[in-house]
Amino acid sequence: MKKTTTAGMPRRMFLGAAVTAAGLALSGCGGGAAPAAGGNVELNFVYWGDANRAKMTDAAIKVFEEKNPGITVKSEYQDSGPYADKLATRFAGGNPPDVLNMANRSLLEYAQRGTLADLRSMPELDLANIPDTIQSRGEVDGKLFGLATGVTTIGMVVNKTITDQAGVTIPDDKTWSWEDYAKFATEVTQKTGGKVYGAGYDVATETGPILFARQRGEDFYTKDNKLGVSEETIRDWFQYSVDLREAGGYPPAGFFEQIGGSAAQSYLAKGTVASQIIPINNYKAYNEAAGGNVVLLRMPGETTLERRGYSADPSMLWSIAAKSKHPKEAAKLLNFLVNDADGAAETLTQRGVPINPEIAEAIKPKLSKDDTAFVDMVAAIQEDELAPAYVYPKGASVVADTLKQLATEVEFGRITPADAAKTFLEKSNAAINK
After folding, report:
1. pLDDT value of position 100
2. To bridge 176 with a disulfide, which of 25, 180, 241, 355 should be the other Cys (CB 3.0-4.6 Å)?
3. Helix residue ranges per DSSP H, 300-356
4. Are strands 294-297 and 154-159 parallel, antiparallel or unpaired?
5. Distance of alpha carbon 289 from alpha carbon 287, whole angstroms
6. E-strand spans in 90-209?
7. Residue 212 contacts by C-beta under 8 Å, 6 or more apart in sequence?
8. What tens digit of pLDDT does each residue of 213-252 get?
9. Phi, psi torsion values for 320, nearest 5 degrees
């Protein structure tokens, strides 16, 4: 029987089929293009990211411009929080970017408001090699409004230099439980005399509880665009961090500040925490920032709870604004982002494994040891049947904001995990699909 991934996608379709020299010209799948009619066209391209991502993206854009004379690209990037606000302001003001990053939590809302273009209606965009399962993550009411920027997931990174110096053994990530992780984190704090906290992950970002809910047999968001996570699961998610803090494995309230989202700015790089949850496509950046002895692990609980928590969740998607003044050129840029091997050679796995299997295969020889480790983990995760994943419902941005607000209240002890969970369900259900 053919091994499958989420929703029955063959594993080779997820990571990239073997490609013969005749099947893929490494000079790129996008090819050159004639100058835009009427002179030069400038596209506005806005995305979420840091300076390192911007450097790689700019290199890819240069390739696009060389292959498409007559089209120039003005790009802008922003950190995660300000990005969402900036995007909302741009759309509200009637001046949206031509090509943009769209968050999972916002796709349905933007699509149903008519602000995004149906990508299948654009002949300049070739979707022939994009697996149906990947396309389904951007579908709303039978139309395609977003394409995953890459395939990735979250994982745990541990600074092995710290654990070796402390004499703490890192558990086996193929079998460890959440209880094992708590014991490990607490031991690190104790054996470093409190100079390093064993755990430093973000409680307030929904990727954690989404995976945690799946492990417990629940869909955080359901197929019919509703909230499916239980009050008990949200309570336990909050309670876990409270218990870990009280045991000493997690930093005290107020420890974390707004320092930016890059690996270089992280507490893992500073050496004040020994482990952190990250999007695993950023493993290379974290390893380099923290000194080169960081190990990449699967999330706890994957083999000890009801089912796997992993799925094919893109962190972001590519979209085109419905009111783009240059829709054909915008579609050419998006086609380049997903189908051009030369462009992918510049960005590699910065946004995850490329969604076009041929492009994923083409960049393999160019990958570093760290990026290969990330790709190998994605492959290994697909060995077992994974839970399905669905388009986030309208109002998911409110759900995410509510989680952040309540996580802060729990952190400072102003509300109990049980009360926070109750409030979370009430506010989230009130916002869903409204």
Report:
1. 97
2. 180
3. 327-339, 341-347
4. antiparallel
5. 6
6. 99-103, 139-140, 143-144, 147-148, 154-159
7. 233, 236, 237, 301, 309
8. 999 999 999 988 899 999 999 999 999 999 999 999 999 9
9. -125, 135
Q: Which domains does the chain have, with CATH numbers?
A: 30-150+315-376 (3.40.190.10), 154-310+395-431 (3.40.190.10)
Q: Are 170 and 158 in contact (CB under 8 A)?
A: yes
Give the confidence band of 260 by pLDDT, cuts at 50, 70, 90.
low
What would the two tokens of residue 313 be? 């969740």
Give CA separation, 236 vs 298, 398, 411, in Å. Answer: 20, 21, 14
Q: Residue 432: name the closest of 404, 388, 391 by CA.
A: 391
pLDDT: which is higher, 78 or 185: 185
Residue type, 431: A
Q: What is the pLDDT of residues 180-193, one digit of tens each?
A: 999 999 999 999 99
Closest-CA residue to 350 (of 22, 45, 52, 33): 52
Q: How far is CA 245 from CA 116, 251, 405, in A?
A: 43, 6, 18
Q: Rounded to whole angstroms, how far apart are CA atoms 2 and 7?
A: 13
Q: How far is CA 347 from CA 58, 60, 221, 342, in A?
A: 9, 7, 31, 9
For residues 381-406, give the mean pLDDT: 87
Cα 248 vs. chain centroid, distance in angstroms? Answer: 29
Helix (H), strand (E) at residue 261: none
pLDDT in tens, 326-342: 999 999 999 999 999 99
CB atoms < 10 A from the CB of 139, how many?
17
CB count, 10 Å around CB of 121?
Answer: 11
Both structure tokens of 122: 């654009």
pTM, entire model? 0.77
